[in-house]
Amino acid sequence: MCQHLGVDRETALSGMAAYHPDPYALSFYRLGGVHFVNALSANDIQSTRMIYRQVLSTLPRSPQRTVLLVNNRMDRGSRTRSMAELACTLSSDEVWLLGSGQDYFLRTLRRGGYRGPVTKLKSAGDADFAALPDHTLVFAAGNIAGEGKNLLARVEEEGERLVR
Questions:
Q1: What are phi and psi of 67, to 5 degrees?
Q2: Cα–Cα distance between 7 and 20 in angstroms, integer?
Q3: For the sheet containing 160-163, what is the strand order?
Q4: Does the pLDDT of residue 133 top 80, yes or no?
Q5: Does a structural domain hold residue 17?
Q6: What DSSP line would sit under 58-111, residue for residue?
Q7: Which of 46, 58, 99, 159 could hold 71 in an S-S bridge, CB 3.0 to 4.6 Å?
Q8: Which has the higher per-residue pLDDT, 8 or 52?
Q9: Which structural domain range is residue 69 located in?
Q10: Mean per-residue pLDDT for 22-47?
Q11: How far is CA 58 from its chain centroid?
Q12: Coil vs helix vs strand at 47
């Protein structure tokens, strides 16, 4: 392909050797009996919805419970609203909120008809994965900034990455 595009072999190989994958790209982890999907870097609700549905349809067995964990940033109010509206349409059993705008997100969820449990987390360390039953899917979405990076660092430290 590189040759076809006019890139010489040495330059192509040098570029490939220097490549560093995005550390926040879509990734999958196991935390004990819990499966964790990091979709925090999905940039829009359509991509988030597509990833969520694809994950659910490709799991070897249906999860016993699904948790939608949403991290929001203060400077992304429209995305907070969009994520809350999306959360109303997904089939999650519960929602965990992280980051800013939690009260607004909760009001939007309730106005949209979501009646499941909602947990407000002050920090990534408050996410109690150990209390979840085995075969739970935690799907993290929203935004990687702030507590999202802390959450992912914690998951990488405590969990086992399943896909590289």
A1: -120, 125
A2: 20
A3: 118-120, 94-99, 65-72, 136-142, 34-38, 27-31, 160-163
A4: yes
A5: no
A6: HSSS--SEEEEEEEE-TT-HHHHHHHHHHHHHS--SEEEEEES-HHHHHHHHHH
A7: 99
A8: 52
A9: 22-163
A10: 89
A11: 16
A12: helix
- How many folded domains does the chain comprise? 1
The two three-digit tokens of residue 122, written as one number? 């002050």
The tens digit of pLDDT for each residue in 82-132 reads 999 999 999 899 999 999 999 999 999 999 999 999 999 999 999 999 999
CATH number at residue 143: 3.90.190.20
Q: How far apart are CA 140 and CA 105, in angstroms?
A: 15
Q: Which amino acid is at 147?
A: E
CA pair distance 80, 97, nearest whole angstrom: 11
Buried b (16+ CB within 10 A) or exposed e, 77-114: eebbebbbebbbebebebbbbbbbbbeebbebbeeeeb
Task: Say if pTM beats, i.e. exceeds, 0.85.
Answer: yes
3-state DSSP helix/strand/coil % of the chain, to nearest 5: 40, 25, 35
> Counting every residue, how long is the chain?
164
